[in-house]
Amino acid sequence: MHVHGSNTYFAHEAGRPAARMTAWLERSSARRADFWCAVSRYAAERTQAIFGLSPVGAVVYPAIVVPEESDVDPEHRDPGKVIFTGNVTPKKGVVSLIDAWAEVKRARADAQLHFVGPTSARVEGRPIVEYLLNRLPDSIRLSVSFHGPQPHSKLREALDRARVAVYPSYSEAFAAAPMEAMAHGCATIYSPRASGRELIEHGRNGLLVDPDEPAEIARSIVRLLEDQREAARLARAGRESVAERFSTEAAVRPVHAFFSECVETYA
Description:
By secondary structure, the chain is α/β, with parallel strands linked by helices. The chain is built from eleven helices and eleven strands. 40% of the residues are buried.
């Protein structure tokens, strides 16, 4: 079993009860596994506690293709472009991000916020895009764009042009979106919750912000928009850390070791 979170896991993370039948099915399935690994240390510990499992066999982080360094040029970045990539849904912290945006615009008139990813979620009976835009003053709504799902080539282009990527998420097993932003040399703001600290060390290879604190999110975005040298430093360190720990070359070793041990032990 390879744990990427589950319905029961995310229900616990959100502080709400899981559906009884779903929880029973997932627990029963998990307990039948002869071996199991997880995509993060946090997801492993939470899943073990929720389902009463034996200790995890391995933490197998996701892998990512890291672009060549020559393809990541900080000079080509839009100085006011901020990007969020992934599913536009409340658990990803997008409401707090929108609530932070007015403060960002007061500090940087050229700031533009781009959402790239599915927008099918609904909040309080309204489409997520409508809900988010209605939280903004009329005067700055045009600074926010929703692009919907895009081909991966377009997503990579957007990450290559943005100055800052921001993901104030409430819950992840292990998020691929901030990892991909870092791989593309984009200064990245993420969340300390769940597995966030397994990807980013605050102030060294990115920034961590509390998703319940829009003012903190705004300050971090403005800091990176106004200080190009700091943004470039964090972007460079972020890319290097992802290349070292999560490139396909680095990630294959623990995968091979875990499954080899499973085969040998089971035999």
